[in-house]
């Protein structure tokens, strides 16, 4: 794992957008794993701007989202399909037929989960998986005690997640109690993982995930097993890390990060 600390949330978000841009330049037909949540909104705003102003091309790529609530149709403003259409898919030249989210409306949820896994394999596997982190340490909706070997399945949401996501809903009781999520093992199968966290309220859980012991209580700690994982943080989210100076040194000195220090790797 590499941990990169940027001075502000804006700089962290821009770096993540530039890493995705680089991926699309190297491999225009990349399979991208996507995430939702407030943190990602600015990543997608950056990608939309790069598509408009810099002709960043999504026409050949294919996407898989981490998760979807059970029981919310695509036209529900709180569904993740709606979120993705609004923040990214309608803003760039992605072919909607190449965008995939788990089907939280399926009559047979178990079959929908198995089908989602099958589709990822058929598309050649995920090249770059974008991740956020929930306050309980989840990636996707892999709540505490999610097995590191878990695959796409239905998960009951933890009380902390229900509280964290309640502000998006008209009342806390409206938050669905269950969601379909890629499993921890599904995420670890991605060729590269890229986790973004910003803000002081993520500092404690980020420290547990990055430097703490690996535990199913904090599913993002499973990323320590991944051979190509980058965690991008702003200073606030990095506030509880013990080795922050070492991580800052890496970004400023390691050759692989040189193109990103100036902002525009493709240029
Ligand atoms: C939801 C999503 C997660 C995401 C988390 C973080 O729970 N299922 O994939 O990481 O939100 O959200 P935010 O960026 O709003 O803190």
* Main sheet record: 7 strands, parallel
Going across the biggest sheet, name each strand in turn: 1-10-9-6-2-3-5
Identify every distinct bound molecule in the structure, by name, code or SMILES: 2-amino-2-deoxy-6-O-phosphono-alpha-D-glucopyranose
State the end-to-end distance. Answer: 27 Å
Strand content: 15-25%
Radius of gyration: 17 Å
* Number of continuous helical runs: 9
What proportion of the residues is helical, as a percent range? Answer: 25-40%
Please report the total strand number as a whole number.
10
Low-confidence stretches: none
Instruction: List the helices and strands in order.
Output: EHEHEEHEHEEHEHEHEHH
Q: Return the average pLDDT rounded to an integer.
A: 96
The outline comes out as globular
Description:
This protein is of the alpha/beta class and 267 residues long. The protein has 9 helices and 10 strands. It has helices spanning 9-26, 38-54, 80-89, 109-122, 159-165, 184-188, 203-211, 244-253, 258-261, and strands spanning 2-6, 31-34, 62-65, 67-69, 99-100, 128-131, 153-156, 178-181, 192-197, 229-234. The protein has a 7-stranded parallel beta sheet with strand order 1-10-9-6-2-3-5. Strands 4-8-7 form a 3-stranded antiparallel beta sheet. Strand 2, helix 2 (38-54) and strand 3 form a beta-alpha-beta unit. Helix 1 (9-26) crosses helix 2 (38-54). The chain is globular. It starts with a strand and ends in a 6-residue tail after the last helix. The structure holds 2-amino-2-deoxy-6-O-phosphono-alpha-D-glucopyranose. 2-amino-2-deoxy-6-O-phosphono-alpha-D-glucopyranose binds next to helix 2 and helix 5. Residues 35-39, 66-67, 132-134, 140-141, 161, 165 line the site of 2-amino-2-deoxy-6-O-phosphono-alpha-D-glucopyranose (GLP).
């Amino acid at each position: 794992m590499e941990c990169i600390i940027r001075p502000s949330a804006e700089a962290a978000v821009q770096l993540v957008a530039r890493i995705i841009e680089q991926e699309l330049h190297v491999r225009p037909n990349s399979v991208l794993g996507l995430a939702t949540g407030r943190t990602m909104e600015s990543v997608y705003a950056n990608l939309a701007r790069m598509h408009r102003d810099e002709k960043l091309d999504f026409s050949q790529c294919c996407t898989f989202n981490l998760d979807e609530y059970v029981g919310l149709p695509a036209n529900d403003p709180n569904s993740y399909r709606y979120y993705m259409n609004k923040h990214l898919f309608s803003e760039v030249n992605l072919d909607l037929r190449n965008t995939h989210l788990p089907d939280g409306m399926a009559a047979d949820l178990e079959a929908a989960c198995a089908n989602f896994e099958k589709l990822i394999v058929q598309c050649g596997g995920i090249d770059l998986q974008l991740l956020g982190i929930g306050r309980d340490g989840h990636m996707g909706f892999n709540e505490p005690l999610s097995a590191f070997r878990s695959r796409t399945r239905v998960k009951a949401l933890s009380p902390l997640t229900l509280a964290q996501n309640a502000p998006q809903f008209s009342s806390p009781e409206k938050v669905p109690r269950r969601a379909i999520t890629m499993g921890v093992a599904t995420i670890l199968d991605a060729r590269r993982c890229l986790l973004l966290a910003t803000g002081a309220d993520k500092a404690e859980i980020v420290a547990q995930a990055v430097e703490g012991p690996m535990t199913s209580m904090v599913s993002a700690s499973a990323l320590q097993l991944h051979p190509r994982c980058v965690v991008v943080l702003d200073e606030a989210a990095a506030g509880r890390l013990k080795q922050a100076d070492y991580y800052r040194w890496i970004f400023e000195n390691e050759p692989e990060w040189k193109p990103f220090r100036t902002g525009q790797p493709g240029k």
